[in-house]
């Protein structure tokens, strides 16, 4: 065969080979496009059936005021967000995100807001973040809201923060609250005895009211520091072991301590790491995957 003659068989094989390569290369994309199309269609039908898009259509048709327009933009934004989150949540989503609330006073100063207004803005941003987390499918969210150190702030500021917390915790219990919308169980974490009575009672009410929610978990750390948490866990572990020793110590001559030591086969370490871990306030959630400190 001269070098100008075409070997049709080889060309055919190459062509088939190329087509196969292209088809293989494109197959996942075609599959993804199909999935995407299917997803858009499902979300559209879901939204349409939920009457939201019908409402938007009716408003455009029959004229609307500013409030209605705002509502429409909110609905569109929520639709777009859910759509984007739907795609994002096809990939791996963090199981636990923690937020350290910070920078509210600096925000307030920068924007010339009155005292305490920065904290209110901070709280409302927090609520938006919570909504996004739950829409994305994050199961555990932790908020570091108020540390034991924060009690050293001026009495007026501490009081105003306690009032804000009481008001917002009461809001969380309401039926239409984000917590009930997404089936979130709330835990208040920290040395709650240090809180003012109204805040403590509100926190206890919120924990009781959401105890049956099981879709997600929100841990709110108030009157919390990690060193206090460790101290509390050690104290609780010691008390637990001491109660066991007292039960075993029927002859009152240290028998309980020896028996427990032998049982655990570690005479020196009557208490071990797993005991401490069990008594940590944060035992209600796994370790966070991401910790976000707001402010810069
Ligand atoms: C129920 C619930 C979760 C309530 C949360 C209420 C709330 C807004 C708490 C934040 C309080 C706080 C001490 C933030 C830290 O510093 P900073 O933001 O005061 O100020 P800085 O870092 O600018 O000094």
Estimate the mean pLDDT confidence: 80
Say which molecules are bound, naming each kind only once.
farnesyl diphosphate
Main beta sheet: 5 strands, parallel
Structural class: alpha/beta
Q: Into which percentage range does the β-strand content fall? A: 5-15%
The N- and C-terminal alpha carbons lie at a distance of 74 Å
Walkthrough of the structure:
It is globular and about 90 Å long. Helices cover 60% and strands 11% of the residues. The protein has helices at 8-49, 52-62, 66-88, 104-110, 117-136, 155-173, 178-181, 197-209, 226-248, 255-263, 273-278; strands at 96-100, 140-147, 184-189, 216-224, 290-293. It is an alpha/beta fold and 296 residues long. The N and C termini lie far apart (74 Å). Strands 3-4-2-1-5 form a five-stranded parallel sheet, sandwiched between helices. Strand 3, helix 8 (197-209) and strand 4 (216-224) form a beta-alpha-beta unit. The site of farnesyl diphosphate has 20 residues, from helix 4, helix 5, strand 2 and helix 6. Farnesyl diphosphate binds next to helix 4, helix 5, strand 2 and helix 6.
